[in-house]
Amino acid sequence: MSKKFLFAAALTLVVAACSNRPQPAETERLVVIDVENAIGQLEELKLSQLGTTVRYVPLETGDSCFVGNNPQVQICGDHILVTFGQQCLCFDKSTGRFVNTIGHVGEDPEGYASPNFTYNESNGLFYFVREPDQLLKYDAQGRYQGRVQIPTPPARPTMYAFCDSLIAGYYLNMARSGNHNRALLLFDESGRACDSVASQLPVLPPATMQDIEAIHVWKLGLSGILLTRFSDGSVQGNITSDAIWTCDGGLRYKEEFSDTVFTLRNNRPEPVYAFHTGRWHFPAEARTQGSVSKDKLLPLSILETPQRIFFQCARNIYENNPETLNGIYDKQSGITRMGKESAALTDDVNGFLPFRPLSCSTQGEFVALVWPEDILPWLDEHPEAKKNPAIAPLLQIGEEDNPVVIIVQ
Questions:
Q1: Partners of 311 in the β-ladder
Q2: Which candidate, 374, 407, 370, 403, places its Cα nearest to that of 65?
Q3: pTM of the full structure
Q4: What stretches of 17-52 show up as alpha helix (H) in DSSP?
Q5: What's the domain range around 164?
Q6: What are 191-248's pLDDT values in tens digits?
Q7: What is the CATH number of the domain that holds 188?
Q8: Element at 12 (helix H, strand E)
Q9: Tens of pLDDT along 76-91?
């Protein structure tokens, strides 16, 4: 493969940001998260830095609601949604009681492609992708509620969020191609395209299989990276993470190779948070030059509530030993703290197992899952903990039971 990557043009695009460049007055709202200084003094991150109220919700166990491997969990209104394999299970948030299965994977008229969903707070419905270009709607009782046509071409977006009456579709880096450079597509429930937002980054040209020397897949905390190495020595990383979400009633998004979080105002992007990495800054040319990316730090996953931002960064993402770090930004104090992702968050509230957040809700709750195989040995090693009323829901857990959801607020 020839050197197709025009780095000078890339830098120009990043700076110019075409017609969507924020105006000077808008940038005054920008909040800088000081990663550079925080990474110079890594510390033990604690659960109380996210919240002080901790609740344990054992999920009901049964033949129709058994949770499988590698589950994801989200809180949606009064429900806990757990997805894994081809299943999407709904549980009551207060009691952990199983409510029902929501929809199904299939090719029939009401079947979707994957149990991964997007929740719409305004109508309480769950939206699932149906290939090639539709979203299927279900309510919390598992009843089918119709479909939305996604405007195409170009190909459909990768993930979705809701902004007022509009649906926002985000294109991951790997979903863009030479015929468009969108970051966002805005459309309504009737399937009408209303607007789009250009990416701040240039499109990377496609390559043929003959150009590829090797492909690697790595897990980086809550994110993943598909790394392609080419025969001419260049590289290309495709990062998968939740790049679009809502908070405080606004829509947020962050492009994969960017250090800035944008919010939409009047369908135009305005920078709201910037991760200041200083001397560890991941430059534009590092996207395709592995040597340039060495020791550089790239912000990846973000979980934002009205009070806190939990985020993860990784350095040496193109090396064989990438390192992932956790960070917590307190919106009220403006303090940024960082620690090693491998250590998770020490539970200084109840002294329980380390906390590893998987998601957060718009109500300000951080959510994690813990399995009986981890809970039971811990209880045996800490018999004094059984006197703590907060731990009481864990005392009835059996070896074959479903996981327990931990909710921190």
A1: 302, 327
A2: 403
A3: 0.89
A4: 24-27, 35-39
A5: 28-408
A6: 999 999 998 887 776 667 778 888 888 899 999 988 888 888 888 888 888 999 999 8
A7: 2.120.10.30
A8: helix 7-16
A9: 999 999 999 999 999 9
